Amino acid sequence: MITMITGRGNGKSLIIEVAQGNPGCLQFLMELYKLPNGIETILRLWKYGIKGSRAYQLWNDCCGRNAALAAEILEATDMEKLTEEELFHNIDQPRGLKFDIEEIRQREPIRKEGYLMKKHGMMIMGKVPKGACPECAMVHDPAMPHNQQSLAYQYRFYDQEGRWPTWADAMAHCTEDVKERWIAALKEKGIEVK
Ligand SMILES: [Zn+2]
Question: So where are the chain's domains?
């Protein structure tokens, strides 16, 4: 399920999406943001649907407010050292359970590397809903622009181009008259397309 977000495609919009207005979670995400693998970790939270109070529980209860440990747990899940079931089992308790990190470290990874480290974001959106555009995961006429606000589109684009997409990118495949109509419509909403 792709959630529509407002605002520009950047790390902040992802944080808003994952935090779900939970102040404790936001604090956790800010801690993660300081880590070298912070964005990857936040993408993993998003990928596994661990948001708001559940993300807070992962950090606060399961990891004793150690953001680096939470990042390691999520990476271990990506490498399939830890199953999603195990991850969720520890989180979804009245009080989250601690992970035995020493034991998890000993496990043989099934995936040799966390792919998000190499490929920013896109594997997470492997599946798109039936009938939806494979680029932006939204249902739209292929002649029309992609939904520039779609997280799927933003991360797929980022993965390919190494920068966030603009509306000009989202309509690059459209005919001139479609572009003109969209540029005019966006201008009415106060969005300038260059
Ligand atoms: Zn599209």
Answer: 2-109, 128-188
